[in-house]
Amino acid sequence: VPGCFVSRYWLFKTEPDTFSWADLLKAPGRRTAWEGVRNYQARNLMRDEMKAGDGVLFYHSRVVPQVVMGTAKIVREAYPDATQFDPESPYYDPGANPAQPRWLMVDVAAVQAFKEPLSRDLLKTQSELADMMLLKKGARLSVQPVSEHAWRVIARLGEGVPLPS
DNA sequence: GCCAACGTTGGC
DNA sequence: GCCAACGTTGGC
Length: 165
Hints:
The protein is α+β, with helices and mostly antiparallel strands. It has four helices and seven strands. Strands 1, 2, 3, 4, 5, 6 and 7 form a seven-stranded mixed sheet that branches. A hairpin with a 6-residue loop joins strand 3 (about 55-60) and strand 4 (about 65-80). The longest helix is centred in the C-terminal third of the chain and has 11 residues, at about 150-160. The protein is globular, with a radius of gyration of 16 Å. The protein binds a DNA duplex through loops.
């Protein structure tokens, strides 16, 4: 059935200069609104597929090395991203209509830090992860589905540890 | 910092 | 509705 594909696992990219894993751990409740997604495919995944409790791999992009820092989870399902209406915001969208918001976001909360950041280079060496969207050339989607199998492989490699209290 | 790959825009 | 031009992403 078209559209019946369901992922319970996701990978969220962020540039650590903009918002890092450390920023998430410092945030109240170790949670944040994932504002600023301005891509329709990503928006549709948030709107239609992401459910509270889904697992999230927290990934740093545009740094060397690129790394998965730990795991998070969806704690609030899709709702309007207010930054689209804010002319002062870098995410302002002059075409957005408050009566029918164009852009949505979800909230995420940190779950486990990885013992060591898990590099993309290491993931590339894992034949079990060959199908991962993250590792495909030109795959720019900033929030993307992760298979249950890939989630398990990465969780094992990352050796998640409890967050410091 | 470079630039290939990708998504969006807008003239026609 | 096509597609060239443009802006952005993100690995390297």
